[in-house]
Design goal:
This protein is α+β, with helices and mostly antiparallel strands. It folds into three domains: about 150 residues, Beta-Lactamase, CATH 3.30.450; about 80 residues, Signal transduction histidine kinase, dimerisation/phosphotransfer (DHp) domain (Helix Hairpins, Orthogonal Bundle); about 150 residues, Histidine kinase-like ATPase, C-terminal domain (Heat Shock Protein 90), CATH 3.30.565. Helix content is about 55%, strand content about 15%. It has eleven helices and eleven strands. The strands form three sheets. A five-stranded mixed beta sheet has the order 6-8-9-11-10, with helices on one face. A hairpin with a 2-residue loop joins strand 3 and strand 4. Its EC number is 2.7.13.3.
Length: about 450
Amino acid sequence: MKIRNKITLIFTLLAGSVLLVIMVFIYIFSDRYTDYEFYQRLSERANIIAGIHFEKDEVSSEMYAEIQEKYLHKLSEEKETIIPTDSMKRLINNQHIPRNFSPSFLVEILSKKHARFRTGKIYHVGILYFDNQGNFVVIVSAKNRYGQAQLNNLLHVLLIAFFIGMIVIYFIGRLYAGKVLQPMAAITEKAKDISAHNLHLRLDATDNKDEISELAVTFNHMLDRLETAFQLQSNFVNNASHELRNPLTAILGEAEVSLQQERSADDYKKALQIIEKESERLDSLITSLLKLAQAGNTREEVTNMPVRIDELLVELVHEWENTNPDNQIRLDMSRLPEESGWLSVRGDESLLWAAFSNIIGNACKFSNNKEVVVGITGKAGSVTVSVKDQGVGIAEAELQNIAEPFYRGTNARSFEGFGIGLSLAHRIIKLHGGTLTISSVLQKGTEVTVSFPTKV
């Protein structure tokens, strides 16, 4: 069911329920008032009937006839009952109730001098009348045919008004729902036009600050992220293709030149050395791309094992010193925390190794083997690693792009590399819930700070 139909249905049901409650209240109030008014009428007739009956000997026959004509038009099935109070008490005591009146009704007349009750459609009103001839109970009974006809007519009017009102409410609700959802329909139509080829399009967001406007703003933010992701992906593919093509071109070109004619052993050896060098470069690039792809996994897909950051860095620095003896890496462990658990991070050890290896490797490469200081600090809840070099530094304008794949600073293009290492490290650290920040000054050096949440 469409939202417009749901809103219309809910609005119709709610408004109809309120209308029904109001109409029921009107009918019940009218019914109560009709009963009250008829009881009042019967009370007046009881007093008039008693007065005429007991005062008949005190008025002329002409006046009596006039009173009868004016006040005593018969009501529907009207009956009058006049009983002396003495006789009434005896009848009650002997259980001989006249006309099947309720005993409590008769007792109430005697005690309160006025009572009323109803049996089916017959209304009864009784009064205690005091006369010089004695005390009498006067009871008038009748049907409220006129009042019942009015109530039936009111009921018909209310039912017709209810059904007409429900129809009107439905169409008003449908019109109202259409107007409310009109911005949503506009968003839907605009969203249909957005595809991978025109991600620059955006939805029209108003300043109303309502839910639909918030939806449009949120959707636009999502499009911003998607557009950025598509651009990064496009750049990544283009750059990766370019980087892969260079060593392959060199390998194919060298092989083709070598096979064109017979050459000396030294020439073949030189060609194979070039092919080996370019193959190693290609292998390194492919390995980096695979690690970069692995770092794009979700946290749930990454091994979740405790890793001691200090132990990992000690082994990593030791390996760098053995494989690259010209590097000057100093491991500063003077600020280690007292609790060893504060240095433990849950994650994938091989990925963390790759991240720190790339960070330390960049520091050594861009500082021309000047001293690189790797410091470790920790406290309850987090561990921080800083890698500080004395290299060429990074321009401030380029810092925001430095973690993108294949991006290389203008002053770093003379160094070997593909521009993948820092991007790979950034993804791995983010994957482990950590943060990577870079501060740098041109020709003075760069400091990379990595922080991880820890679990004891």
